[in-house]
Amino acid sequence: MGDQIKTINPATEEVLETYDYMTDATAKAAVEACHEAFLSWRLKSHDDRAEIIRAIGKELKASKDAFAELMSREVGKRIGDSKQEIDLCAQICEFTAANGPKELADEEREIPGGTGVVTQSPIGVIYGIQPWNFPCYQVVRYAIANLMAGNGILLKHAESCTGSGLFLRDVMERAGLPKNLFTVLIIDHDQSDKVIENDLVRGVTLTGSDGAGRAVGQKAAEQLKKSVLELGSNDAYIVLDDADLDLAVKTCVMGRIYNNGQTCVNAKRFVVTEKHYDAFVERFTQQMSAIEMGDPFDEKTGLGPMSRTELRDELAKQVDDSIEKGARALCGGKVPDRMGAYYPATVLVDVAPGQPAYDDELFGPVASVIKAKDDEDAMRIANDSRYGLGGGIFCKDEGRARELASKHFDTGMVSINGYNIAIPNMPFGGVKNSGYGREHGGFGMKEFVNTKSVYITGQ
What sections of the protein cross the membrane (predicted)? Predict the structure, then answer.
């Protein structure tokens, strides 16, 4: 490890900024300062916390253009996607401010000889380790819920978007959040382990790969600290016999390419029954091959660069390995000869177990199309995964699709005849190797609280 972080524009390979790592002593002092800020924040009323969270949402809107530009420069997001991300984060603030006081309110229950009170108490400093693909949203998702609950927040952001983490801190403080209550730690992995070990840190949350989740989850468990893990997935979108094929093709292209294909809940595997397979592959490939790579700041660009060249190269290797094991690329599939971390929209067919395209998460604009015999086989293939974050069903019979989604699809989220990233009033999270715990929808506010029983008797 060097003693500095350099952020690099993945479209131009330009060095953007250089940041010094914290020393161990500085990092420890930052944790202590966050805890001190928490000691006062926890005593504020729910309404007072909500007022500041509402102000954070307003400040995000006011800072949208500058923040979006920074994110696109740091990680290559198309500028329109970056602006939409800020809008979503503002909506999360608004939802949390409007619903937090009710979600966290004391509840009274009858008990023998008196009254029982169930109260939700903040537990302390919550440490978040976050990735680069949504530099604002990934942080806001856990931070705003936990600030509403009364906790303090530590952030170790991905190195490639260090500037975005610091920008968000400044947004929060401009909105009135007490200094140090949201603290950005510029640290390495070894220092991160020490943060988890720190007695002042009471909970740990990570968004990342299942490998990272195992390491962080194990480290938190060693310290008997609760963790929430939102990990990767290879979400299956199934096209059943009675699907609207035009809708399915259009939605699946958008679901695969959104955010340059670098989203945990991107549509990644496309499981299509024999009835529609040939027509789906033809139309899907035609639309994917027409997507042009370009400058993420050009509103007409269909696909920007991936966030880093090493991640692009890792994706290319997964594609090559899949082809060596029997898959075929109908479009894309090769690293382009151009500057930047670009990879073309790619469609793979003849995808089968044992290939990365079937078994693993391809975190980039690569689609795996798999043929199923019938509807039942399509659902079997969809669930044939170690992951379970999201998925989708295309089916004109909404009642049947709803039953399949609720009773048969082994994932945390299912879209029917559409594609969704995240909605503030709906829970977000997965099962199996996609992690555990829930965010959004009021659920995230209660992941890191002490649900306390108070018994009032003797009256």
Answer: none
